[in-house]
Amino acid sequence: MLERVYELRSFARLADVLAKPLGVVHASFAFSKTPSGRAGARVAVRAEPQLVCQRCMQDFAFPLSGGSEVEFADDDESSAGDSQSEPFRANGGMVSLKDLAEEELLLALPLAPMCSTPQSCGRAPGFAAEAGHSEESDGMRRPFSALKDLLKKT
Q1: pLDDT on residue 135
Q2: How many Å apart are CA 24 and CA 41, to the nearest integer?
Q3: Are 91 and 64 within one domain?
Q4: pTM
Q5: Are residues 111 and 130 in the same domain?
């Protein structure tokens, strides 16, 4: 098994996803032959990147881990077989471990990151008042409740 640690800021494809480029990624690689006879690896990543919550738009630390089996192939056609492993392009038989770790990290990230639970998300002191949100008696945030009153006037 081979282990590496990479700075999050060194991953170019993560720049738009991260709130802050702080922290590191711990990656491990276990190389072997796949059932199809090609070279492959079991890749695992672990990190705690700073993401932006899509509900309250606040930064938060998101602990994540992910892993998968990959099979190295020089072209897309040779990897399109019955393999149960994910294909990963090897350029001339060479593989960048950093690129492999970045790919695995991107797969582990949520599409719409959200902090904590809906009941407490964005409930920092003064958040609702600053953002123009009003609270209803049932505890739900209703950002367009002022629009309801405006429509009644017209």
Answers
A1: 46
A2: 21
A3: yes
A4: 0.70
A5: no
